[in-house]
Amino acid sequence: MKNIALTLAMTVLLAACSSGSTVAPLPSTVNSQFAGNFQNINNTQRGTVRLDIVEDDSGAVTGNIIFESNTANCLGNNTVSGTTNGFNLSIASEINRTRFTIVTTTTRPTGATTVSTRFATSGTVGTQTRTGSDGTVTTTVTTSEDLTGNLNIQLAISNNGNTLSGTYVTTGNVCSNSTGSGDMTLNRI
Asked: E-strand spans in 1-136?
């Protein structure tokens, strides 16, 4: 009787294992450091991005994001928080910084005047005037503006949790509409 019960149990187990059913893969955790590239939609801001994140058992994610760029970049380094949902990662970060606007007016002794404007991440607010030995007067006016907003990132988790790829978008006045959204792809390092 024991042999019949054992044979029956083995037959059921063998039938279940060879039935051809598959098991869906489980989502990988994203506890790690990732590095890759970002580029905005109109290709005027691009560079490298590093994401260092930890995921808890409930799918909550916290960490840091760091951007490096050789071009003007409206995105900012900061802490991030978010969640994973299956094979997707959704994270957000606040962006708060000061932008300095520097307007330089150069007036030559002939009366010809040129005006240039540039933006910087540092500066001294105020007006400075200097007169050159040839009589050229250069006046520099520096003002500051607080920029605030949020960076929202939606990434798909693929390659057994080793690749994150998707889009980002900013809100607030930290980026213009044409520079505040784009794509990023990161790989586990």
From this structure: 32-40, 46-55, 60-68, 78-85, 88-107, 113-120, 126-131
**CA-CA distance, 18 to 107, in Å (whole number)?**
87
CATH class for the domain made up of 25-96+148-188:
mainly beta
**3-class secondary-structure state, position 43:** coil
What is the Cα–Cα distance from 189 to 35, expressed in whole angstroms?
7
Enter the pTM of the model.
Answer: 0.70
Q: Which amino acid does the sequence have at 61?
A: V
| 155/153 Cα distance (integer angstroms) | 6
Backbone angles phi, psi at 30, to 5 degrees: -110, 25
> Residue ranges per domain, the chain?
25-96+148-188, 99-145
The two three-digit tokens of residue 136, written as one number: 């050229």
Q: Which pair of structure tokens corresponds to residue 142?
A: 């520096």
Contact between 37 and 50 under an 8 Å Cβ cutoff? The reply is no
- pLDDT < 70 regions, the chain: 1-29
